[in-house]
Amino acid sequence: MRLTILALAATVVAGPVLALEDCAPDKVYLRGDWGQAMFSVEVADDDAERAQGLMDRPSMPRNAGMIFVYEKPQSVAFWMKNTLIPLDMLFIDETGTVRKIKEMAEPLNETPIPGGKDIQFVLEINGGLSASYGIGVGTELRHPAVDQEKAAWPCEEK
After folding, report:
1. Which of these ranges, 22-26, 47-51, 124-128, has the smallest mean pLDDT?
2. Which of 43, 46, 54, 125 is the most exposed place for a label (fewest CB within 10 A)?
3. Count: domains in the chain
């Protein structure tokens, strides 16, 4: 019983501490009518990192991913060349709002996957997690790469 109380106390104390770290570059938060989720991410924000992406990795932890950051909104297309694990690709606009999702992109497939126009971010997570969590179009992303003046879910609520 004593251990349970201590564990609950640690959870309550950790809550406010986590709120202070909401906008760390290595984390993204998603929210929607389905709830909320957090992913630990690598940031791909230059041409070389975006070209490499998640290629040649045999696995990825469940709540991990990669966020591709572009300087400005644009048309984007991805492929799965040399990517060994199925991925869900979330195509996100400059406000951090999900505009399109490609679920279960097939490993090693070189067919282009268009994300649409005016996309500034692409979040890749393990295949099947979008459906599992209920993540859909309209979901909002919180991350420091999103222009906070335009963000649908800014780092600091106003």
Report:
1. 22-26
2. 46
3. 1
